[in-house]
Design a protein that fits this description.
heterodimer; A: about 280 residues; mainly alpha; two-stranded antiparallel ribbon; two-stranded antiparallel sheet; 11 helices; 6 strands; elongated; B: about 260 residues; alpha+beta; Ribosomal Protein L9, domain 1; Ribosomal Protein L9, domain 2; 3 domains; five-stranded mixed sheet; three-stranded antiparallel sheet; disordered N terminus
Amino acid sequence: MASSRIQVTARQLSKTLKKKSRFDIGIATELPAAYKKFWREWKLLKPAAVHFIPQEGKWKRDELTGETLPIQNIPLPLKHPAEIYEGIWGGEAVIKGFQKRDMHRRRVPHYWVPVLKRTVVKSEVLNTHLSVTVTDRTIKLINDHYGFDHYLLKTPACDLVSMLALKLKKQILSELMNGCPRYAHDPQKQKEIYEEYKTYLSSYTPEEIDWYGLTWPEALNKVAKIKEAANKPIPLKNVYRKNLVEKLKEAAIEAKTPTDDMSSTTSWLSKMNPFGKKDEA
Amino acid sequence: MVNYYLFSIFVIEMVDSKLFVMVVEMNENNTFILKRKWPPPLHKKGGKPDKMKSRHFVYDLVEDTNVKKQQDMKVILSQFVDGVGNVGDVVSLRPNTAYRKFLLPGLAVYATPENLEKYKSDENKPKVEKSYSSPYVPRTIGCLSRLVLQISMSKTTPWKLELWHIRTSFRKVGFVVPEETITMPPQEIQGPDLSLQEKEFYVTVKINNREDVNVRCRIYHWATTALEKLPWVAFHWKKPLEPLFPEQAEILEKLPLPE
C-alpha cells in the first residue's frame, strides 16, 4: 500500500517538476499546432550529416578484442554565423576545432569555412532569378533535385539552415496554394507549373503554410496580433454616444405621441425670471 | 519530445516517395569532411553524451570534396544552340557550364524522366524550322558570309576564271572548299582586265549538301615586277565596290562588309 502511494506521489512530482518547454510559457501556449509542426521540422529534426561520414548500423565489433560495441554517431558541433541565414549554404556551416598538424607539436585552433560564391538561382514558381550566396554543395543539390524549387520543397527546414531559403519556401508554397498568380498572363504555362509542383501541397494545410518559415519572435508577434485583433477594445465614448443616440431617438418617438403635459414642463420655467435679481429667484 | 521527433521523420518521408530515393542516392558531399582524431567515449543508451574535452574537437580532414572533379551532367537542349546541338539533344556538360550557361539562361532543361519523354515525343513531330545539318553550320555560315575573298589573277598572262581558282583562293585564307560545292556565276569572267579590279561578284558554297552561303569575291591583278604591280590600297576590303553583274547587286548589298 505504502509503496503504491509513493509511486503516485513520484508521478505527480515528475509532472509538477517537469521542465517546461518553450511552448508552455506565456503567450507561446497559444501557438497553433501548425507552427509546432514547423518548429519540429526546423529545430528538432536531426539534420543530415554534411561534414562527417556517419557509421552505418547499430553495432560494430572491435577488431582487436572482438568486443561488440554500440555505434553512437555524435555529430560535429557546427557554428552558424549570421551570414548563413542570408545565403543558402546547402547545410554547410563553419566548424570550429583544432588541427593536429604534427605528432610532436601542440594542436592549433582552426576554423573550417565553406567556400562561398555568389550566383544566380532560378525559381520557376516565383518566375524570377535571384542573386544569392551559395556553396558548390548548394548548386549540386539544386542540380540533383532538378531545380531550385524542387530542392527547397523537398528539403526539410533543418537541412536548409537558412532563413532566406525558408522564407522563399513559404512564398513558393503560398504561391502554389493560390494557383501561381504570377503566370496569369500565360494560362498554359501556369497550368504546367501547377501540375509539376502540386504534389508538394498535399503535405501542408493552408494554415500550416501560413505559419511556415516564421522565427520564434515572428510567430509570437503573429499570435499577439491575432489575439489583439480578436478582442479589440471598443472606446467607451463610442458606446456612450450610441446609447445616447438611442435614448434621444426613443425620446423623440415619445415626444411625437400626443401628451398634454405642457403645463408640467413650463411650470418651473414660468416661475423663473432670468432678468430679475438673485433674491427674487 | 521524442514523440514529436519520430512523428516529424515520418511526415518528411511521407512527403514524397521521390524524396527518400533522392536522399539515398546523394552520398556525395561538396565540402570538408572531417573526422575526430580522438572519438569521445560511449555514453549511456538513450542518454546524453558526456561533456566533451578539448581533444574531442581535434579533427582530421578526411576529404575536401570541393577540389574533387565532379561528374559530367546531362541536360536536354530546349532550343538550337550554336556549336552544341539541336532542340531535344541530350548533351553531357561540365556541371558548372551546364548550370551557368545553359540552365540559367533557359537554353536547356534538366534531363528528368518527364523531360526526356517530352522531348523524345517531339522528335517524331516535323522538324522545327531552325535546324541545321550540324551544330557548327551557323558559325561557318557567319564566317563565310563575312569573308571578302580575294582572287589573285595574273596581270600579264591571259586567263579565264575557273572553279579551281576559287578553291585555291579559299584555301589561301584557310577554308578547304571542295570544287563540287562551289557554284560560280553563269557568265564567263576573262582577263586580265583592269576594269574588274573595281568590281565584285559572289559565288555560292553549299555546306553539308544542305545549307547555301554566298561569298563576296574580288579579283586582284597580280604581277611579279615592282613596276607592274598595282599600288597598295589601305583597308581595301572595307571599301564598297560596284557589282560586276547587275543581277547580283541585290544579294551583294545584303552581305555584310567587314568593319
